[in-house]
Amino acid sequence: MTVSGTAPAAAGAEALERYEPVIGIEVHCRLRTASKMFCACSADFDGAAPNSHVCPVCLGLPGALPVINRRAVELVLATGLAIEASVPPATRWDRKNYFYPDLPKGYQISQYDLPLASDGRLTVETPAGPFTIRIRRAHLEEDTARLIHATRQDGRSVSLVDYNRSGAPLMEIVTEPDLRTAEQARRYAEELQLLLRTIGASDADMERGQLRVEANVSLRPHGEEAFGTRVEIKNMNSFRSVERAIGTEIERQAAALDAGEAIVQQTRGWDETRGATYVMRVKESSDDYRYFPEPDLPPLHVDATWLDGIRAGLTELPAARRQRYRDALGLSSYDAAVIVADPDATGLFETTLAAAGGLEPRTVSTWVAGEYLGLRNRSGTPIAVDPADLAHLVRQVADGAISRANGREILALHVATGESAAGLIAARGLRQISDAGAVGAAADDVLAANPQAVADFRAGKQQAVGFLVGQVMKATRGQANAAIARAALLERLETGV
Amino acid sequence: MSGATRPPEELVRLPGHAMATALHAREVSSRELTEAHLAVAERQNPALNAWLTLDRDGALAAADEADRRLAAAGSEAGAAGTAGAPGIGDLHPLFGLPVALKDLVSMAGGQCTAGSRILSGYVAPYDAHITERLRALGAVILGKTNMDEFAMGSSTEHSAFGPTANPWALGRVPGGSSGGSATAVAAYHAPFSIGTDTGGSIRQPAALTGIVGLKPTYGRVSRYGIVAFASSLDQIGPFGRDVRDAAALLHAVAGRDARDSTSAPIPVPDELLALPDDEKAAGSLRGKRLGLPREYFVAGMEPGVEARVREAVAALEAAGATVEEVSLPHTDYGLATYYIVAPAEASANLARYDGIRYGPRRGEGDTLGNYLRTRGEGFGAEVKRRIMLGTYALSAGYYDAYYLKAQKVRTLIKADFDTLFDAGFDALVAPTSPTVAFPFGARMADPVSMYLSDACTLPVNMAGLPGLSIPCGLSDGLPVGLQLIGPAWSELELFRLGRGYEAITADADWRRLEPAELVLADDPATPSPMERVAAGAAR
Question: A58, A381, B103, B477 — which has fewest CB within 10 A?
C-alpha cells in the first residue's frame, strides 16, 4: 500500500465539474478464525484439494444444524469497537433465501436488522486532509461455496462445486454513501484493510479473495439532494482497480447523463485489462430475499463484560498510532503515515526505537520509511532487518562515524547476507573520514583537477560547491564526512588558495 | 436360555421393560427378540406399509453385539471381586431391544427419504445425535418407518411411498406424520419407536393407533441429524405401548447436544427409568390439580371421543385429582398462526432439495430449469402447497402482516399456558385428536379438514411445551387418546400422571384388546394400503 500514490488521480476528474458522484462501499472480508462460521471444519483451505474441508453442516446436508463460532463474533465486535460502532445488547441471525448452486442450504445465514455493529465511522488521512466515512453496519455471515466452470474431455462444459469455502466466516461492512471521489473510495478501502490487519480480524488480502470490495456509484448535479440511479460495481481485485473502476464508471454515467440517457440500475463488472466496466446483471426489481430470523440459532446476548474484554484486547489502532508518532515522537506526517500503513515497518520502527535508546525517533523513522521500505519494495518480498543492527547503523550515521550513503549500502548488505552491521562496517573499512587533514588533502586534489568548477564558483555559481563535494566523496569512496569536506572546500575557495 | 420356551408371538407382545428384564436375566437373547420382531414386521409390512426399510443384517449384528456384551457382563458378575466393569445393572432398558426410527432420522450408511421422492437415493453419511445415543447404549435399530412427506400431514397418506394402514382397521389411516412409527409399535413390530412432532405428529398417531406418544419440551432432544420441517416447532419423541416404555426411550435420547444450539442444558431425570408401580402411581394422583381447557372440545369433535375423554377425567377425579374447567383464550388462532410459521420455516428448510448434491436431478437445461423440474417432480402436492404458503408469508410486503403477526400471536398462545401453570395447575387434560382414525382418502381432497386433525395438538408446539398422549378407551372400536400437557421440562411429571391413569384403568376391558385387524395383516392375501387407496379412488 502506498499512501503517497497518486496513480490515476485524474480518473473521472473531468466529470466532477458537472456532477457530484455519490459512492458507497460494501466490503466482504474473510475473518481470521481457525474453524468455519457454523461448524468445526478448518477454515485454512486455501490451496487444499476441492471438497476436503467439508462436513454435514457446511455441505447443508439434511438434518445438519449450525453452531456459532464465538471467535468470529469476537472479531466482528472488535471491528465494531475499532470503528466506534454501537453494539446491540442482543443480536441474532437471519436466513437470506435465494437459490444458487454455490449455496448448499438454499439460504445464507446472515444478519438482517440486528447487525453486530452499526453506526460506526472511519477517518482516512490524505494529503488534502482527513475525511470521515460513516459506516452503516458490520455484520457476520457465512461464505458460499466456489463454482468452477470447466470443460470435460468430451468437450462438454460443466460446473463443479468446491464446498471448502462454504460456511467460512465473512464480515460485511457497509458505508453510508459518503464518498465523493474514486480516490476517496480507494483510500477508504486501504485504511479499512489496515485496520482489519492491525486488529487481527482478517488477513484482508484482496488478491486471495479475503477482501472483496464492491461499490455503489451514482451521479447527481451539484446542489441536487436526491440520489441518482445507482450502479453496483464488482470484480475489483486490487485497490488500484477500485479507483480505476469507479473513475471509469463516473465518466460512463456522466457521458450518459450528458447525452440525456437514463442510468439503468444494474450490476457491472470491472474488466482490468480492458479498463472498462461491463453489464453483469440488470436489476428490474429489488431482490426479495425473504429474510426471517434463523430458528436454528438462539439470539446472542453481548454482555458488557464480554465486550470490555474485547476492548481491552485491542491493539493500538492505526489512527491513534499515527497521531502518537506525530505528536509524541515528532515524526513527520509522511513518515508516520508510511510506517503505520505497513505492519512490518511499524514493527521494525518500534523495535529499533527500543534498541536504539536515546536516538531521536525522527532519525529512526527516516531510515524505516525511506531506506527499509525502499529496499523491501524493490525486493518485492519481505526482508529481514535486525532491529539492533539497524539501531547501530543509524547511530553510526548520526554520530558521523559513517556517511549516510555508506550506511544505506551497509543496510542492503545486511539484508542480503544477514551479517551484523558492525561486522560489515569493519570488514569494508567504511569508517567515515572526519580528520580535517585527510579530507583537506582530498579537497586540494579535487580543486586542482576541476578548474572549471572553481572558476564557476568564483563567478558566483554557489552550486558548484555541491559538485565539488561529490568529487571529494567519490575520491574517498564515500568515506569522507560530507560536512567536513564542504567546509574544507569553501575555506579553500574563499581564501583563494 | 429359555427364550425358546416363549413363542415369538408372545415375545413381541411383552412390554419393552419386561423384555429388558427377561434379557438381563438371560431368559431371552437380543437375537431372539430381534428375530421375533423382524419376522412379524416382514410378514405384516405388505399389508401395513409401516416400514420403508428393514435392516435385518444391521439389526442382527447389533443384537449379536448386545448378546456378547451381556455374556461378558454376566461372567464378570459371576467372577468375584471384579470392580469397575459394567454390570448388568448398569445396562439401559433400551439395551439389546429393537427400536424403529422414523425415516427422517439420519443413520450413517442408511437411506433417509423423509417420505419424499426428492430424497430417494440419498444415503446419510452421518448419524443423528439420537442415533448415536441409541447405538451407544446398545439398542437394536430395526429400520426406518413410513411418514408423511417431510412430516407434513396427519395421516401418512402424503408419503411418496404409499400410505401406512392402521392395524385397528386396515382401511383407515394411523394418523401422521409419524404413522409408520406408531403402527410399528401398535402392531408389535417393535416395542419402541422414534417419531417427530411439529404440530401433533407423535401424539395424534399415538392416539389413533392406541399407544403412548410424547412430544417433549422444545429443546429437550437434539434435532441434529433430523431432517427439518419447521425448526422452531420440531421435536423428536418416543412411542411405546405403555408409559414406562415411552419414558425409557425419552431417557435414552434426551439431553443437551452442543451441535443443536436450541437443545437445552437441562438435566434428564433418571427417575424416568423408575416410574412408580400401579399402587403408588394411583395414589400419586391424589391432590393433583388439572385443568380442562374448554376450547379443546371443538366443534367437529366426535361424541365418542368426547365421551371417552370425559370418562377419563372422571376417573382421574375419582382417584383424588381435582379437575377445573379452564380457558386458553387464543386457541382459536393456533391453526392459522401455525400454518404461517411452520410453512415459512419449511419453505427455507426445503430449499436445499435442489438436485445439486443429492436426490434425482431432473432437467438438462439452465440452472433455473433444473430447479423447476427437480423440485416440481420431486415434491408431492402437500409439500408444494406449504412451500408456497411459506414463501408467500415471508415475501416483501407480507412479512409483517403474516409472519411477524403470527409470531406475536404465538407469544399470546404461550402466555395462555403460562398463566395456567403459574396459577398452580400441574397439567392440562384434553383430547389428543377430535376424531378417531379416519378412512383413507377422507381428508385428502380438503387440506383444511386434514389440518383440523391437529387443532388440539399444535398449540402445544407453538408454546414449546411437552404433551403426552395415552390411550383412554375406544370409540366404535377405534382408539381414543387422552392428552396431558405440562409446563416446560415437566416430562417426568406427565409420565407419572400417565402412569397414574394407567394404574386406575388397569382392569378396564379395553386394555385387554389389541388391534383388531392384526390377523388380517398377517394374511398375504390382504391388499396393501396402496391397493386399498387405488380401489377407494376407483369407487
Answer: A381
